C-alpha cells in the first residue's frame, strides 16, 4: 500500500469520525473501527469504544468472517492464471468425489452452484471443528438444493470446497498457500488464522438491555476458507489497494478486474446487490461498490471499494449484531467522494510516435442503419464506439495483434470489430458481430444489408 498520500481535510476527517461514533453508539458495539483508503494509501482511521481511553486502532485485529472468502477466491484465480485450473472445470476434475456432480469452479466462486447455505449438524460457527473433520461432514447427504448455474444462493460450504481445491492442487494447507501467495507479498503481516495481540474480544450485546456476554471463538477447521481470518483496518487497507489495482506478485490487474464483473444476478430480496468471482457487488448512492461483508459470533466487518472514486471504506466491530458495518463502510466512501471528489488525470495528447494515421482516418461518425455512432481512438491502439445521441450500446475495444479490435465491456464484450475494405483498398464499412456501420446512413452503393431502396429518401 502506498505510504505517500494527501491527507484528508479536517472537515472530512471529522465527518468520518462522526459516522463511526454514531455507528458505535446506535449499534451498541463495545468498539468500532473505521478506515478509508484513497488511491492506494490509508488516509484515515478512527475508532470509538465503550472504554474511555482504550479505543482500538488500525493495528488491532478483529475477526473478519466471510471477507475471508475473497482471499480464497484470489488463491483460486491464481490457479486459473497458472493454467492449473479452469473456471469451467467441474470441481471433481481436481478434487476427490464430493457428491456435487458437475458443479464448476466458477459456479462455486459466484455462489451459483446450487449448494446449501450452511452445513448440516450444529451451528458451525459456534461449535468445535472436530464435529466436521471432512468434506462429507460439511456437505451432508444432500449438498445440492437445486440445479447448478440457475440462480445465486450464498453457500458457506461452497467456499470450503474451494479451499480444499487449493489444497489439492497446491499440495499444502490452505493457510500456508494463503500466507505464501497473498499475505506475504502484500505485506499483510497482521492478517492471521488465529488471533495475535493486540486483538479485540468478541461480544454478544443483549438485544433488550445494556449488558454483554463473551462469545466463543472456535477454529473453523475444514470450514476455515469460508470465514476464519483475523485482520486489521490497516491490513484490509492493503488488501483494498490490491483489489483496486492488482499486483503482479499476486494477480494481474486484468484478473482482479475480471473478479469484479457480475457473475451472478441479484437475489430477489436484494435488487441492488450482485456477485462477481468471490466479490460482492452493491449499487449505492449512485456508485458501484465491490468487496465483502463478514460476520462470526462476536464480530461484524465490511470492506467496500468504490473503484471509480479510488476509495475504500473499512468497518470493524466486536459485537454479534447491532452495528451495521456494510452501511458504515459505504458511507465512509460516500463522505470522502462527496467532500473531496477525485481529480481527473490531466488530459495529454498522444506522443508523435503513437499516432496511427490509418486509425485516425477511421474516427468520427458511423451509422448503423440510421443510428449515429462515433468512433474515437484511445491509447494503445484501442477505440471507443458510442452513440452520438440518445441511448445506445457504448463499448471500448482493445486492438488485436492480427488487426481489428475486441470488445471489452457491455453488449459487445468479446465481439470482434474489424474494417472491411473494397477491392481497391478503400474502406467500405465496419463490421461488428455482423452489424454493418457505414459512413452515411443508407448511402446507395454502400454495403447495406438488404440493400437501399432505389428511389432514395423522400418526403411524405
From TrEMBL:
One example GO MF annotation: hydrolase activity
Report domain Beta-lactamase-related positions. Answer: 23-337
Q: Which Gene3D superfamilies match?
A: DD-peptidase/beta-lactamase superfamily
Q: Does the keyword Cell inner membrane apply?
A: no
Signal peptide stretch: none
- Which residue ranges run through the membrane? none
Q: Which UniProt keywords apply?
A: Hydrolase
Keyword Hydrolase: yes or no? yes
Which InterPro entries does the record cross-reference, listed alphabetically? Answer: AmpC-like, Beta-lactam-related, Beta-lactam/transpept-like, DUF7586
Residues annotated as domain DUF7586: 355-439
Name of one Pfam family that matches: Beta-lactamase
Q: What is the protein named?
A: Serine hydrolase domain-containing protein
Q: Which organism is it from?
A: Streptomyces gulbargensis
Q: What is the lineage of its organism?
A: Bacteria, Bacillati, Actinomycetota, Actinomycetes, Kitasatosporales
